[in-house]
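lol forgot to send this yesterday, sorry. struct tokens for the thing we talked abt
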């Protein structure tokens, strides 16, 4: 199937000429039937290419359930289950995280559970098809499953590792000014081409972020994530956005520490990161449709986009700190002390330990109409 994706990209370049990295990524990740995420209902876990917090077991969902129940209370949840709340998960996959959240909510916060109207947003048809079985015990709470965020919702929209999988433009500064990397053909292989930017929005993005790239350095610009934040914020009548991803503030992301950018591939739990010495055939041009492609998120620009769309920033913090506060306030510590909860204790350690998922992942929380 990856070969089919490669053929699709080759045909696109031959017909139109060199394409932006953003267009290449869109095809490699999401092209119907042949893109990486379009071909399977689950990509993470022991048998997948990478590990997410969801793969650590149900404890991650249990912690989020407490956080979301608290947000419901802040929105006026009446303690009797009467105040409905839309719970929208974007990039919901086959529904594993939603299941873990609903399992915990039903067990620990029944009033909140019965107020939930769950919406699962997922682009992959195969993953959406698997949601019915995954969420069999909670189908009464599931209102919709589609590729699109509801046109209007009031409650909580959340996403775990969504923005890093958005297609990005790759720019590079030279003595002549800002250029953009394109994907072209050379014989039977893909190669990079440096040419003029495809849109003035790229230079405007860097200027808005207060970033000046040094000659020879490159970076990724995620215009799609900015548009997405603006859109979902406009659809939200009142409530919260909770986004969990790995990234940096703009000053760090576009610094010398990431001079070659952050675009990388994950395959069988191995990461191929940027390497200036191997630019002729970078890893992300190998096997399109067969590998995950990802880049770090610009937290500064995401925050600014949310605020310009009418959201208030409540916090941007490490996952470790975010989850620790939930552990301390939720009473889960007492439950985890039981002898039969060893697996959950080990999973929690993985979620919190410095240097692991806890410190590499950031949590961004925004609110609208909450006082």
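and heres what i got for the seq, position by position
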């Amino acid at each position: 199937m990856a070969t089919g994706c490669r053929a699709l990209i080759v045909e696109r370049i031959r017909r139109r000429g060199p394409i932006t990295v953003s267009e290449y990524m869109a095809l490699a990740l999401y092209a119907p039937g042949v893109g990486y995420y379009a071909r399977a209902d689950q990509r993470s876990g022991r048998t997948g290419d990478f590990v997410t917090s969801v793969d650590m077991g149900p404890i991650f969902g249990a912690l989020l359930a407490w956080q979301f129940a608290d947000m419901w209370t802040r929105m006026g949840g009446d303690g009797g289950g009467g105040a409905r709340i839309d719970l929208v998960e974007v990039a919901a996959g086959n529904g594993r995280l939603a299941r873990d959240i609903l399992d915990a909510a039903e067990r620990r916060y029944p009033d909140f559970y019965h107020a939930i109207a769950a919406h699962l947003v997922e682009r992959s048809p195969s993953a959406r098809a698997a949601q019915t079985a995954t969420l069999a015990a909670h189908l009464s709470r599931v209102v919709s499953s589609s590729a699109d965020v509801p046109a209007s919702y009031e409650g909580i929209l959340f996403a775990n590792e969504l923005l890093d999988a958005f297609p990005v433009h790759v720019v590079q500064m030279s003595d002549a000014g800002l250029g953009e990397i394109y994907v072209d053909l050379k014989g039977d292989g893909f190669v990079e081409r440096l040419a003029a930017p495809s849109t003035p929005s790229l230079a405007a993005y860097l200027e808005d972020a207060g970033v000046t790239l040094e000659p020879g350095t490159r970076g990724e610009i995620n215009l799609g994530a900015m548009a997405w934040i603006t859109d979902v914020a406009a659809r939200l009548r009142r409530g919260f956005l909770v986004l969990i991803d790995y990234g940096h503030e703009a000053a760090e992301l576009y610094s010398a520490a990431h001079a070659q950018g952050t675009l990388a591939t994950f395959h069988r739990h191995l990461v191929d990161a940027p390497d200036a010495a191997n630019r002729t055939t970078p890893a992300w041009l190998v096997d399109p449709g067969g590998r995950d492609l990802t880049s770090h998120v610009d937290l500064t620009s995401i925050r600014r986009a949310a605020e310009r769309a009418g959201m208030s920033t409540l916090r941007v913090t490490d996952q470790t700190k975010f989850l620790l506060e939930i552990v301390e306030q939720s009473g889960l510590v007492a439950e985890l002390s039981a002898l039969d909860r060893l697996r959950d204790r080990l999973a929690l350690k993985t979620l919190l330990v410095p240097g692991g998922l806890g410190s590499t992942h950031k949590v961004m929380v925004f609110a609208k109409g909450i006082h």
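The CA atoms of residues 71 and 240 lie 8 Å apart. anyway ping me if u want another try
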